## 1
Amino acid sequence: MKKLLIATHNPGKLAEFKNFLSDLPLKLISLTEIGITDDIEEDGKTYEENSKKKALFFAKKSGLPALADDGGIEIDALNGEPGVRSRRWLGHHATDEELISHMQKISRRLSKDNRKAKFRTVITVAFPNGTVRSQEGSVDGIIAKKPALNRAKGYPYRSFFFLPQLHKFYFESELTDAENKRYNHRYLAVAKLKPYLQRLLGLENT
């Protein structure tokens, strides 16, 4: 069975990718499973730059095709901030609780008529020979006035991101399979990337 490295140290992302790729005949490998503890600086100016940089780095280091992503939340009233700096909005790699606390302050400042926000992600699959393919996914929502009581490890912004059309906070566990396929930004990007994975990994006839 062909192997695909999921190049993230985020347990939430790892679980989502394993779920969204479960229909492909692939053995999904985590960085921990092959003993890779390295991390790289996400200093790109766009999600795509960071996504490609991570995927290529781990593909070449592991000798396996690697899948990586970069994304963030974009708040309309803040001109799209924090965007590519979502995890480092506070000037360092902030913890979930630090970001949730910061978002409480931000939420209080937003007017009731300007609370729109968007989650965007770019997912890249890279091969040790340098071949890369990237796809983007996004979902629109609003910033809730108060955070959900739930927490999703590795996803602090989801505690504030509300999908008004579903009357639900944006937690994968709270969305049905059909809702995830329609609204999950990472699922939408993975769905676009699957044809490339199938072709480049030779899975089309399996």
## 2
Amino acid sequence: MKHTAAWQRSSPNELKIGLVSISDRASQGVYTDAGIPALRVWLQSALLSPHVFVERLIPDTQELITVTLIELVDEYACDLVLTTGGTGPSHRDITPEATLEAGTKIMPGFGEQMRQISLHFVPTAILSRQLAVLREIPEHAALIINLPGQPKSIQETLEGLKDSDGKVIVPGIFAAVPYCIDLIGGPYMETNETVVKAFRPKSALKK
């Protein structure tokens, strides 16, 4: 692949993050999208490492979702891609199917943990079909995760559940993301531990 300017990083450890909000009505301007702003605000509070966002607001069209995910990884060299919306059981909810088409490996633990977190709040969490995959190409690899559509649920899923003293009751999925990015050859991510503490085995910690 011929690398374009979109592949360039401002520094070797800059993290490139794709944010994709999937909604027919928001993409048509019927209402203002809340997914991407919620993701951006949370990530800016959680990440200490330099990072840049590549954002897309698209309708619930399976082929377009797949093409967008592939574009963010293959053409923009995103290390992490987060989607929001389209993960329920209704007819137009096809984000998981589109994500599987873009992926090369399934990462089932992310979906399992997302549902465990949501079940602390609503029994209908079992209806969620959120999942995660890796997309690997010869030059690059990325982690793609489907997140809920509601801003509050996005935060709970990423950050986990804490008691009144700030002690983690149920770990959020983002605690595992930095080490996953390490393992697929991406930049070393550092997090704000007051928001979410990245877990790495001692052998993987940078001194």
## 3
Amino acid sequence: MTTSDQVILPAEREYRFEPFRFIPAQQLLLYRDTPVRLGGRALDILAELVERPGELVSKRELMARAWPRTVVEESNLKVHVAALRRVLDEAGSDNRYVATVIGRGYRFVAPVTCNAVQTPTAPPPAEWEQMRQLPAPKTRTTGRADTIDALLRIMRQRRFVSIVGPGGIGKSTVALPLAEAFIAEAGLEIRFVELSPLADPKFVVGAVAAALGLTIHSGDGVQSMIATLRERRLLLVLDSCEHVIDAVAVLVDHLLSGAPELRVLATSREPLRTAGEYVYRLTPLAYPAPDAVLNAAQALAFPSIALFALRAAECLDGYVLGDADAPAVAEICRRLEGIPLAIELAATRMDALGAAELAARLGDCFELLKRGRRGALERHRTLAASLDWSYQLLPDGERALLRALSVFAGAVKLDDATGFYQGAAAATVDGIANLVDKSLLSADVSGACVHYRLLDTTRAYAQEKLGECGETGAMRRRHLEFHRTLFERASDEWDARPGADWLASYGRYLDDVRAALAWSFAPGGPAALGVSLTVAAIPLWMQLSLLEECHDCAERALAFGTEAEPLATCDEMRLRAALGTAALYVSGPVPATEAAWQRVLQLADQQQNREHQLMALWGVAVCRSYAGDLPAVLALAEREQALAEGAGQRAAQSAMERLIATALHYSGDQPAARLRLHHLLAQDAPPACNARLARFKLDQRSAALGTLANVLWLQGDAEQAVSTVQASLQQARDSGHAPSLMYAIANSAFPIMLQIGDYAAAEALLAELYGCLKRHAFTLWDTLWTCLDSTLRVLRGDAAAVPLLRQAIGQLRQRRYRPRLAWYLGTLAEAMAAQGQRDAALALIDEALAICATGEERWCHAEMLRIKGTLLERTDVDAAEKLYRQALKIAIPQGALALQLRAASNLARLTGERLPLKQACGGLNLGFDTADLRRARELLDQPS
């Protein structure tokens, strides 16, 4: 600090720290000659700090300066230092002024000069005296610039504007800077009236009169105010009107009618509903979508996250949001749905928990946010206090309705609410409308039907009240029974309505089904009700392709049955059918999947339930077809044929025909498989006589095209195989059925692109499959994706992918997933041999050959023999030659020209014998260039 040579008396001092000037004697802080509004305590603290720049000023010294004759808690100091920092940092841009010395005090770190006060001091701007009528803002306005601009435009046109929203949304925080901006622009007087302290509506007139500087002696104070205001251009700000709203509405109506130059800005949790009122509903701060992946810079572009980071920095001096914290903070702001008060309260817990732990604990967000802000109005100190304020203003009927609606996890339609609440429909409709008006319930009017929902924080509060009233069990049971009845009706409609139409009606109930089931299967819950809801909700999981969730829920319900209290036969049959269907995608055609379908078949035979008989026969046939067990598939198909004909189920017959063709393909009879597939695909698409049965399956046309593409490649027609697999993919995409698309990629398109050597196309398909897995979490398919990805990397020469492929194959074997296992083992064996692990490679290829010998993978038997031959070439040429000739003997009768070409190429390279290679090339469709064909041509072009 620099001073002049003479001593400057305290009353004459002026402190400069760019871009500010501070004159303690006048309690005046100027920002480039513009007065800055700051509370007296904060100015006293600033005076103590700037008088000793660079020095550590203890907390005790600061409290003695600001509260000279009062003992206060240290937290009060922290509140006022935070307010001081906000003002300095907001106006001073990147400059830093007040630093914390943890546990000891504060230090003013910006350069300071002290001079005599310039005489005369420039008078404050004319509007400054009006600004002083407003309370100093408690917090910096963050993320509301566009809102304030929009409201400013509205206030230029309208005399009465109400800012309406739930507690904690930031109504007062927006109203103060809005009022400042408006009076600075319009040159009005301003009076601010804080109504929250009023305990009785009869005090409203007196409070407004006092703000206007009137003393009311007569009984009609309103007329006195009108007389005073008639010639004055004035903005009257009425803050927190909700608890005295009727009295405020009457007063405002009279004042606006009698005082033409008066304007009113009100904040309330519900509209005043007076003539000329413009209602502006304040929305939460924007927050990221659930699937957004953001770094810190991207996250801070969202106002909710910017607010959190600002409040966290006030709590933890110097805190800066980093990339590591960005995901957790984004999750916090999402969970708190952009409510500023909730976000601010959460940020105050950063000192104790940190971002990751805070996000993890938000499951009990209401309890977590009960610690309040020091120095705030009582109703704003904690989230509980804010909601208590609104709840206590409700009549008993609306309180009961709010508590009841808290059991809904998602949005609710008006018809659902009236059906669930079981009260008088008209009273329920009125109650919901009133809760919307009072900002305790939000209404989404964007669609054809209005949906209502509680914010998560309000829901948590109302659930707490539900428990205090002893109503939780009864309302939870009613909620479950309501959704069970709903989905029993939905299940009946599933056969008759198009999938998209059905899903539009019922898909939005998923979160409520989950909540009801979680309650029913909790210890002591009514599990029997949970079983019945699980059965009813099976179509919902199927239609949403949430097969892993369906699998787990069906298993949980089945586990409820005991010898003492067995499940109803029809319930067990439906649950096991759902389990078997889901298991086909979750686990694959493993023994447990087949066992589930065998039990369905047993129960369906007992019940003579033709629908579930058909489903079970199909399910068992899927498992047997993947095992290459053609006789079993044919036997199942014969029985299914008789049932399907009697029921007119052409769709079921077509599905079984595809399974027969698949079994023929896996068993190695490619000509027969191709014939059946061509015949099947030439038929018109069968009508879905039973939509329920159809929806439990893959898209049959896509699956048939995919199998045909594999057959065509094996038969040497690579060009047609590629066009067919593209048709399979398009059919699956058009179906909108995620498992069908995943199946088409993993079992047809990806393998074919690898076989022809188009690795770029294979990589694109993997990316598409990964996108499906992000939306539909199947644990097995995650492992399968890793297997496919590491296979591609291995074929591209990435040695680091070999252990990943080995691990993925091991996980598939642990899950007893068999389809294409021999092929994966062969790829791994070649890769390990290339790394010098010959013995391990031979063990793997022998395992693959054993799988082929059982009949499961006869289609690639020739290829496994060829691979083993390549492994033995360096040590046993005769054995290698023998294996190549054996591969040819298997491939030729199978009609597998592609594998015949590979074996013949190896034989030609080893022995120079070209005739088998010429014969293989002669049978190929040579219009499409593949890696195998290029290698064959190179061998044939070599001189004899």
